[in-house]
From TrEMBL:
It comes from Alexandrium monilatum. Residues 82-494 form the Endo-beta-1,2-glucanase SGL domain. The lineage of its organism: Eukaryota, Sar, Alveolata, Dinophyceae, Gonyaulacales. Residues 490-543 are annotated as: Disordered. This is Endo-beta-1,2-glucanase SGL domain-containing protein. The chain crosses the membrane at residues 825-846. The keyword Repressor does not apply. Keywords: Disulfide bond, Membrane, Repeat, Transmembrane, Transmembrane helix. It comes from the Eukaryota. PANTHER family: PROPERDIN, SEMA DOMAIN-CONTAINING PROTEIN.
């Protein structure tokens, strides 16, 4: 529904700040209306955190966190809760503002003080304008950073570095940031704010030009940390030191996608080098087993820590457009919920601070991870944002688990949800702080994330097909796996005894108390009309007409067309005159450039002239042009005279992809003069922007010299699968064999190394895993064999296994083995010495006996 009338609609009531235990959310799992009421309350109270003086500065820049006093009041440090921020925090803020500008249903509740959706949009646009001004100043001030963000100080004058030497840029946070800027450009352009959209697109283009200089390693793999030697110096490879390898399929993958689609590349082969190791780790699996599971073991993608935070990328890009990706993701959330349910935990694990304000990235599921030192039980915390991945795949279950965690003692404040709650302590303590990543990730998930905005952006820039091809490639190993456990439902959330009624003498902050009696959740949904439910495909232009058009592209082919709009009930506007009501043949939001009519001649709902605004950008290796259209009131015969499209000269041909045997080379050209639209669409940009031709067609048999295959350098060691377990490192082929040269053995591409037996300095224990299933029989008839295996793993508690002496700690086992070897050596030495002594004794005895015989045999001498 269009949302231009949102000012006349009564919004949902948002209740008290302690809304978790104050209402009976019995239908939260299944009732969309109740889910909307809960989401509106969550967004409204979390918005108090995202307000000036708390989580943001007066310029709209984020502050990392806001600590809480024992009474639940915010602690301010300077202009806001903290004097610093980072790219991840900025990305969350920008993405929420983009959803508000795009008029995503319920998103406007996140703006404090907004009376309705239109007021919230105006505030969000104002913030985005202030934010881009700060970023433009930052990029000019520190050219060596390319526009990307380190951990940086914030204040009334914007961003400032405490030191310009050795500035560290993390890849994971900045990948989130780059796509957040693109989401903002898409939302702004689609709502008619084209000048502001162009500024965000210009910034994204600048990031794309800088990204490979900062994070592309010499071996062609993406790095994890770029250290800029001098932020004031120009951007250059010599000014950057790279460490780490960003090859795991978790939140850092966003940076790899940005490098692939918006960085500068010389060949498609170089781009694919980014993904070879990612595919390997995407295909690594673990199985969650427990006899209490309703439908047997659950196969999941192996996690780093199996923390919910690792799923951040699914908030951003449209991974779920590939059905297999969604199935694997859903199985991970089944395992996450059942692990907590069967262990009796009052919530879900995700990286967070503990009650002593120590940060932990090892709140996860050990048996589903690559291995890590397990914190003591007293340090384990459950965090409400641990439910954000579940919310993306099942909104009802995700919100229900979130409600259970925020309803625990002191887990809600006047700034919304609190960081985390002790999982096993009674009464449970809290990490008395609020932060962007442990709060706004859940807010984004409840609204569906920004994948719909970035799907539009990828389609517009011609990158959507590339994105889907890479996602399909990375999941290739899963095509040969049987995904078990999909019939298991998501586990139910904790009951009231572990949430609302958890033991505590004073479960609420004085400033955020619960209602005396738990009320029905219908108290929050009693509005006579529903909350604004505008979708991301509707809205109003900058001039107030109830229609908003997203960005379109002249050039690469976007995704398939959605269904057409219904029949119009009004006269519609063409570029040079009104026409009679008629249904467009295809949805005018998208352009199929394969048709003859490339320049988009569309009919608009509304009456008036067509206003066309353009924005240029760069993506997937070429320039593109965005067109943003909206109808405005007035005479339909005032359009300017059409202009034709013109191109630059073709660039020189690139290098041939092969010396012989057949190859190709390409050249490109760019649009320099943008056309205006005519009724027939004949003034569009007809003609290719990319040409290719054959080359290197001579046969390779003549003068072909044998060349052996050569390996490249070894990559970094991967993580250990467990204490005392294994780790791997990989390398790629640097030079392929040809003309009969020696080929590389595939088995030489990977090397296995041993891991430490005692990883964290504490006693660990050895225990057997369950037996695997029997393999196939070695013969089809007669007498054969089939095998099954099991492994020893490290655990932090003595196993309960009477049949095996496996409860001995690793160090004790090592000492025992050393003692056994020592005793064996001692025994051998004693035996050897005993043998030597025996030989000496025998030799001496035989010598005496021989002399005695010789004496008796001599004749007596005469006297």
């Amino acid at each position: 529904a269009a949302s231009s009338s949102s000012a006349t609609r009564k919004p949902l009531q948002t209740g008290v700040c302690r809304f978790g235990p104050s209402y009976k959310w019995d239908d939260l799992l299944t009732d969309p209306a109740v889910q909307d009421a809960y989401t509106a309350s969550m967004l409204h109270w979390d918005s108090e955190f995202a307000s000036a003086g708390n989580g943001i500065t007066s310029l709209g820049l984020t502050c990392d966190h806001v600590d809480l006093t024992p009474e639940g009041a915010p602690v301010k440090k300077g202009e806001c809760g903290a004097s610093y921020t980072a790219a991840g925090q900025e990305s969350l803020h920008i993405e929420m503002l983009a959803l508000i500008v795009d008029k995503t249903s319920l998103a406007w509740y996140w703006i404090p003080g907004a009376a309705n959706e239109d007021a919230a949009v105006a505030i969000a646009v104002g913030r985005l304008k202030s934010i881009i001004e700060a970023y433009e100043d930052f990029r000019k001030r520190y050219p060596g950073l390319g526009g990307f963000l380190p951990w940086v100080s914030v204040g009334p004058s914007g961003f400032r570095l405490s030191s310009t030497n050795k500035v560290v840029l993390p890849a994971a946070d900045n990948g989130q940031f780059a796509f957040a800027m693109l989401a903002a450009a898409t939302a702004l352009g689609g709502s008619g704010h084209t000048e502001l959209a162009q500024r965000y697109l210009d910034y994204v283009t600048a990031l794309g030009l800088a990204v490979n200089t900062l994070w592309l390693r010499p071996d062609g793999k993406p790095g994890t940390r770029a250290t800029v030697k001098n932020a004031w110096a120009p951007l250059s490879n010599s000014n950057v030191e790279l460490t780490g390898k960003n090859v795991y399929p978790f939140e850092g993958e966003l940076m790899t996608f940005f490098m692939d689609m918006y960085g500068s590349w010389n060949s498609s082969e170089a781009r694919m080098t980014l993904w070879k190791d990612v595919q390997y780790y995407t295909g690594r699996t673990k199985e969650f087993k427990d006899q209490s599971l309703p439908d047997g073991p659950i196969l999941v993608q192996q996690g780093w820590r199996f923390s919910a935070r690792e799923m951040w990328k699914y908030l951003v890009l449209p991974y779920f457009d590939y059905p297999l990706s969604r199935r694997i993701f859903a199985n991970g959330e089944r395992a996450r919920t059942w692990y907590s349910h069967l262990k009796g935990l009052p919530g879900l694990f995700a990286s967070a601070y503990d009650a002593q304000h120590h940060y932990h990235d090892n709140f996860g599921v050990l048996n589903l991870s690559m291995g890590y030192p397990v914190p003591p039980d007293g340090q384990l915390m459950v965090a409400p944002y641990g439910a954000f991945p579940l919310t993306l795949v099942d909104r009802g279950h995700g919100l229900a688990w979130h409600r259970a965690m925020v309803s625990r003692p002191h887990m809600q404040s006047i700034l919304g949800s609190v960081e985390s709650s002790e999982a096993l302590a009674s009464p449970a303590g809290i990490a008395s702080t609020t932060s962007w990543d442990t709060k706004v990730t859940m807010d984004l998930a409840a609204l569906g994330g920004v994948s719909h905005l970035l799907r539009r952006a990828l389609q517009a820039s011609g990158c959507y097909k590339r994105f889907m091809d890479v996602v399909r490639y990375n999941h290739g190993p899963w095509m040969y796996k049987t995904i078990t456990g999909e019939a298991n439902p998501f586990a139910p959330p904790p009951g009231l005894s572990d949430s609302d009624d958890a033991p505590s003498s004073a479960p609420d902050f004085p400033s955020c108390g619960r209602l005396p009696k738990r009320e029905l959740d219908s108290a929050l949904t009693a509005s006579p009309t529903p909350a604004p439910t505008s979708s991301s495909n509707s809205g109003s232009s900058a001039v107030g007409v109830p229609m908003r058009w997203p960005l379109q592209v002249l050039g690469p082919t976007p995704a398939p067309m959605p269904p057409p709009y219904p029949w119009s009930t009004q006269a519609e506007c063409f570029a040079n005159g009104p026409v009679q009501p008629k249904r467009p043949p295809k949805d005018p939001r998208f352009l199929d450039p394969s048709e003859e009519q490339r320049a988009v001649s569309v009919r608009f709902k509304g009456v008036g002239t067509v206003s066309v605004r353009l924005a240029a950008g760069r993506g997937c290796g070429h320039n593109f042009v965005f067109a943003v259209k909206a109808c405005v009131w007035g005479d339909c015969n005032t359009c300017p005279a059409p202009t034709k499209c013109s191109f630059l000269q073709w660039q020189v041909w690139g290098a041939c992809t092969a010396r012989c045997g057949g190859g190709h080379k390409t050249r490109t050209r760019e649009v320099v003069k943008i056309p205006t639209w005519t009724r027939s669409g004949s003034s569009g940009c007809h003609g290719p922007i990319l040409q290719a031709k054959s080359c290197g067609v001579a046969p390779c048999q003549e003068d072909c010299k044998p060349r052996d295959c050569a390996w490249g350098l070894w990559g970094d060691w991967g993580g250990c699968d467990r204490c005392g377990g294994e780790r791997f490192r990989r390398r790629s082929i640097n030079t392929t064999s040809m003309c009969g040269g020696r080929a590389c053995k595939p088995t030489d591409s990977e090397e296995m190394g041993k891991c430490l037996r005692n990883c964290d300095g504490r006693k660990s224990f050895c225990a057997w895993e369950d037996w695997s299933a029997f393999g196939p029989c070695s013969v089809t008839c007669g007498c054969g064999r089939k095998k099954r295996t099991r492994n020893l793993i490290a655990v932090d508690q003595p196993p309960q296994d009477d049949g095996l002496a496996v409860s001995m700690g690793y160090e004790e086992r090592r000492l025992k083995v050393v003692g056994i070897h020592s005793r064996r050596i001692q025994t051998m030495v004693v035996a050897f010495l005993s043998g030597c002594c025996s030989l000496v004794f025998v030799f001496f005895a035989f010598s005496r006996l021989g002399r005695a015989r010789h004496t008796r045999a001599q004749p007596l001498l005469p006297e």
